[in-house]
Every structure is written in C-alpha cells, then in structure tokens.
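step 3/5: co-fold with zinc ion
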Amino acid sequence: MAASIEFHRREILSRLKDPRRGDGSTSIPLEIRWDPLTGRSARLAHFGAIKAQALDYEFYRRPEVIGHCPFCGPDREAQTPSFPRDLIPEGRLHRGQALLVPNLFPYDMHSTVCILTREHVVPLPGLTPEILTDGLGLGLEFWRRLQERSASGSTFPLMGWNYMPPSGGGLVHPHHQYFLIEEPGNRFRLEFEASASHAGVGDYWSALAARERELEERFIGSTGAWTWLAAFAPEGVLGEIIAILPGAWDLDHFDEESVASLSEGLIRCFRYFESASIHSFNAALFLGPRGQKHFAAHLRLVPRTFLNLRDMAPDVNFLKMLMDEPVSVLRPEELAAQIRPFFRESEHQRK
Ligand SMILES: [Zn+2]
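step 4/5: write tokens
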C-alpha cells in the first residue's frame, strides 16, 4: 500500500484600508502550509512583491575584488590542503576541471571542497553538464572511498552548494562541499526520523513523487529516474525545488547514471533561473546511511537573491532566522508551471 500524503493548507485574508485603492478597503490573501512529511509550516505571502535582482558579474571579475583566490590559477594544488595518505593515498581527487580537497576550515570530520572550474566567475550558462557531472562524480568517489573505510557505514553522504554571494557563499569561485556526517543536522534529522516513522504505511519518498506526478500541480518533470517537483511548503523566498530518486537509499543505489541525470535536471533548472533572472541559489543533496530503506536520496534547490541592490538586504529575516518560518512570495504551483517547459524535452526523450 502506498503511504498516504496529505497536503494541509490554510488560506487567510488580512483586511485593511489601502490608500492606493478608491474606497480604501481591501483584503490581502496569504496562506500557511504544512510540510506533508515533517509538519513544519511555511507561509506564502507578499505575492509577487520580491523579484530576483541582477548580479554584476564583471564586478566579481575585477582583480581588486577577487583579491587572492586559492581556487584560481595553475598552482591551485599548492594552495589547497591534501588528504593524509591513509584517507586518500593520492592526496587529492581530480576529474576534468574538478579538484576535490579537504576543507581548510572543516565543519565535520570529513568535510571537503570540490573546486568545479578553472574560471573564477562562471555565470549559470557556463555550468555545463560536464562540469556538474565531474564535480558530482568526484563527490561520489569521495563518499564511496571514505564510507568503505567506516566500520558501521552509518554516515550520511551530503553535498552542499552556495552559488554566488546572495546564497551566503563566501567564495565566488564555483565549488561544492562534500561531507560524510554522523549528525545530519536539524532539518534532515527531522526528515530522516519522520521518514522512518512513515515507513509503516509505505515509502514516503516514492509516494510523494507518485502523488505529485498524479496531481500535476507541483510536478515539474523527470530526468532519468529523478522526479522533480516544487516543494509544497517551500523554504525559499522564491520557492524551493525538490528532486527525488525513489529507492536510492544509500551509496549502493546511487551511481554515475544517478549523477548524470541529476546534472541534466540541474541544467534545466538553471535554464529556468536564467529566464527568471535568478543568479544565486543554495543546493543540498542528501543520501541516507547504509542499512535503512526509508530515506531516499533527494536534492533541495532554493533560489536566492538580494532583496534590493540599494541596501543589499538579504532575503532571510527574523521569520526564517529566528522563528524558522520561511516565507515564499511565489506559489509552488506557479513555480512548477514556470519550470515545467524547461523539462518537457527530457520528458519526450524519456518516453
Ligand atoms: Zn578563483
């Protein structure tokens, strides 16, 4: 039996007198939604009030702005740390332009940086399928080699990506971060535990992918075995995209084909971002530890922007930072409708 997926929402009207209207009386719609897995709430409000702001890529290319970038130049290996021989005998991992090294400022025991490109500033059109598959492929190699060494294998493979400064990324030079972590952090621990308790009535992630595909409201498309959809209760001010690989419980179910079709979907999202003038995002790819069959591999992708270029205000404020209550100005159903055309070609190829 498929797990039941329930989408709870509450629509609210806020009445006020608007001086911009004739009689001044109006009602402003907003909505609260609850994530069907975790029950975490999110607000939809301020509809259409926030637009993604353009980024001046030439500014980031100025030598005085670049300063010293350890990921640039022909001697990037001399400027980056290497793994001890007992972890990775060759010291660093290479594939194409990509170079994976330990993070000089680690967040966990196994915390790495994967430099994706030789170029310092790479606008979205420059992030090719090869660049993405090389980077993700190196991450996969790192996960496999390090997890094999772990006796329990009970670590979560994680990829994180901050792209361009509105995302909070401190380095403009494109890079992923790959981790093997024992503590999955607040949100993913909640998801992991909720998936486990859901397992009694079926596999939540397969059920979510199937239900969204059936409803055709937030379903975006497919690339390979990945299902792409707009999150029902989004984390980002411009929404959130989720890609699910049903049945991919751990690294034994995640391979180079998974990486290639994930890259293809990311490229399609980037084409949408370009069309919507979105120049920055956060992404996280999570896999479960070995020995469980309820937490499927999934990627979360959240567009980021400065609220405006006058004050350079970030798009996160007290609601998200202190209440952990995200606000999105775009309905997930509208986001899905905007991205769907960029996935149609792959849908046809798949069939
Ligand atoms: Zn650089």
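step 5/5: annotate
The radius of gyration is 21 Å.
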